[in-house]
Amino acid sequence: MSAKIGLFYGSTTGNTDAIAELIRNEFGKGLIDLHCMAEASEQDFADYDNLIIGSPTWGIGKLQHDWEIFFPRLDYVNFKGKKVAYFGLGDQVEYPRNFVDAMGILAAKITSLGGIRVGSWSTRGYKFEESKALINLQPVELSNGSITLVESQVIHVSNGVRASIQGNFVGLAIDEDNQPELSIERIKVWVAQIKERFGL
Ligand SMILES: Cc1cc2nc3c(=O)[nH]c(=O)nc-3n(C[C@H](O)[C@H](O)[C@H](O)COP(=O)(O)O)c2cc1C
């Protein structure tokens, strides 16, 4: 029998692999099945109502290799009604204009295919210039005249300096290159948040 959550990830030099293991441990025994994208198929996604998607960013703003190969096949996965949380690895010092872009690219694609995004994460504590993984809150007026805040994904933010950008990422951002000492605590807080959203 499958676990309650399918965690699908790609990893070129092993960092995302290690973070996926930490996330699985934080959830506790038996809740998460890990699927490496080098071996995953469209059908593997069908077993789960709850998904976690993880990718580092490579090649300056690009998906990790196995995700890049699989990307066109996402169109054949049924994401409708599934809750999907995202995590991304990146390097905010070397790649401040493309920090964790891959997480944003995957979230935009999977959300367009019907996935319900959960588990956004504050940008507080990171310094970078641009990221495709940012979302913002926009005020929208409802028919009864009241105002509500609706999340939308920001594709381009450009202020030209490496700075603290206020807002939220679409999912958990992990920087093993510059802030490895913060990863465990970030995972703990994020997992508690998405556990609730997954109804576990
Ligand atoms: C050639 C190269 C390109 C990279 N490009 C980006 C990038 O555009 N944005 C980013 O946030 N991180 C970038 N990174 C950093 C990686 O995402 C980071 O090291 C990550 O932890 C690697 O994960 P992995 O070991 O699972 O493959 C790059 C690293 C290298 C070596």
Automatic annotation (TrEMBL):
PROSITE patterns: FLAVODOXIN (PS00201), FLAVODOXIN_LIKE (PS50902). InterPro entries: Flavodoxin (IPR050619), Flavodoxin/NO_synth (IPR008254), Flavodoxin_CS (IPR001226), Flavodoxin_lc (IPR010086), Flavoprotein-like_sf (IPR029039). Pfam families: Flavodoxin_1 (PF00258). Keywords: Electron transport, Flavoprotein, FMN, Transport. Residues 5-195 form the Flavodoxin-like domain. The keyword Electron transport applies. GO terms for molecular function: electron transfer activity; FMN binding. Its cofactor is FMN. Belongs to the flavodoxin family. Low-potential electron donor to a number of redox enzymes. This is Flavodoxin. It comes from Dulcicalothrix desertica PCC 7102. The lineage of its organism: Bacteria, Bacillati, Cyanobacteriota, Cyanophyceae, Nostocales. The gene is isiB.
